[in-house]
């Protein structure tokens, strides 16, 4: 019998110093962390199963929020079940390749029992083909307005010591507009999933709508997943997935990640969770340049975002 390589799901088991700020390489022109690119064949050849649910987002769009919502729907609103493990253990991050002895997202997903909930930040064209091969795969996609994404990503890049160092804010906005951040162009990401949503089983949600009326959006997710739950259970899910409750929930706020990986002095993960925080960071001049560039990049799409509610 071939011996299984030793592995761990405990981030504390990663030897000190092996978690370092990586650099980006690219797959089909999309910049990704180099360890993801070096492991790319495994991601591209990942075998999806008919009852998988893929949660797809551009980074910082509210991934963790929708993960918590979907997990609670799957578990009929059982809050204790949703607290069985931290988010990253409950739902593998498909393309992620952490240092040993941790297993990659692909390895974790292949060890999981069905029905699997899988997270990805990959743009549509890089999602493993097997997800689209049969029309039985479903994807919940969450999009968030670009300006709040840049602000949230900037704080996260200071905090997450696996990401390239973000550098000063001024230059960071430029990198975002030049589509040089990890997972590439936000503009192409949100547009392509929007274009594809009616050709596949994709539910396209907006962070801003979830903030405005979380119950309405949770009911949309339930309908999409063919799930019916009593009203009081839906209300419980709304409560349990509110910003403040998730912020205080160690199984949903990433606080189990040691400070060798997340620099908790730089930021918290559950930072503000607002629509319009960008106004506290963009200068008037930066906003004008951003809007001009945005108009060109989003030309011809029916996709509309709200950057305030
Ligand atoms: P901010 O940095 O603006 O606070 P992701 O999970 O994709 O990395 O996204 C993280 C962003 O979603 C963070 O945004 C975080 O605060 C926000 N978020 C997470 N859970 C939320 C919730 N329940 N309600 C509102 N925002 C939430």
UniProtKB/TrEMBL annotation:
<keyword id="KW-0963">Cytoplasm</keyword>
<dbReference type="InterPro" id="IPR000863">
    <property type="entry name" value="Sulfotransferase_dom"/>
</dbReference>
<feature type="domain" description="Sulfotransferase">
    <location>
        <begin position="50"/>
        <end position="301"/>
    </location>
</feature>
<comment type="similarity">
    <text>Belongs to the sulfotransferase 1 family.</text>
</comment>
<protein>
    <recommendedName>
        <fullName>Sulfotransferase</fullName>
        <ecNumber>2.8.2.-</ecNumber>
    </recommendedName>
</protein>
<keyword id="KW-0808">Transferase</keyword>
<dbReference type="Pfam" id="PF00685">
    <property type="entry name" value="Sulfotransfer_1"/>
</dbReference>
<dbReference type="InterPro" id="IPR027417">
    <property type="entry name" value="P-loop_NTPase"/>
</dbReference>
<dbReference type="GO" id="GO:0005737">
    <property type="term" value="C:cytoplasm"/>
</dbReference>
<dbReference type="GO" id="GO:0008146">
    <property type="term" value="F:sulfotransferase activity"/>
</dbReference>
């Amino acid at each position: 019998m071939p011996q299984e390589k030793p592995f761990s799901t405990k981030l504390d088991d990663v030897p000190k110093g092996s978690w370092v700020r990586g650099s980006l390489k690219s797959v089909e022109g999309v910049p990704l962390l180099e360890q993801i690119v070096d492991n790319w064949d495994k991601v591209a050849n990942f075998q999806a199963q008919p009852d998988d649910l893929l949660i797809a987002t551009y980074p910082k769009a509210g991934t963790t929020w929708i993960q918590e919502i979907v997990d609670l729907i799957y578990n009929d609103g059982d809050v204790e079940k949703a607290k069985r493990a931290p988010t990253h253990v409950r739902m593998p991050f498909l393309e992620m390749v952490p240092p040993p002895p941790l297993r990659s997202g692909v390895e974790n997903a292949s060890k999981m029992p069905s029905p699997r909930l899988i997270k990805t930040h990959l743009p549509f064209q890089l999602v493993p083909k097997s997800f689209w091969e049969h029309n039985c795969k479903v994807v919940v996609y969450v999009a968030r307005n670009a300006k709040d994404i840049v602000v949230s990503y900037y704080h996260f890049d200071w905090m997450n010591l696996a990401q390239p160092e973000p550098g000063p804010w001024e230059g960071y906005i430029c990198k975002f507009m030049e589509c040089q951040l990890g997972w590439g162009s936000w503009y192409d990401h949100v547009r392509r999933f929007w274009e594809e949503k009616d050709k596949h089983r994709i539910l396209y949600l907006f962070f801003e709508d979830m903030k405005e009326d979380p119950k309405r959006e949770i009911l949309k997710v339930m309908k999409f997943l063919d799930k019916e739950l009593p009203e009081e259970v839906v209300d419980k899910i709304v409560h349990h997935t509110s910003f403040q409750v998730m912020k205080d929930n160690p199984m949903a706020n990433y606080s189990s990640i040691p400070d060798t990986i997340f620099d908790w002095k730089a930021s918290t993960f559950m930072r503000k969770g607002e629509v319009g925080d960008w106004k506290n960071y963009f200068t008037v001049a930066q906003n004008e340049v951003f809007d001009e560039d945005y108009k060109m990049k989003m030309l011809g799409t029916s996709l509309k975002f709200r950057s305030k509610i």
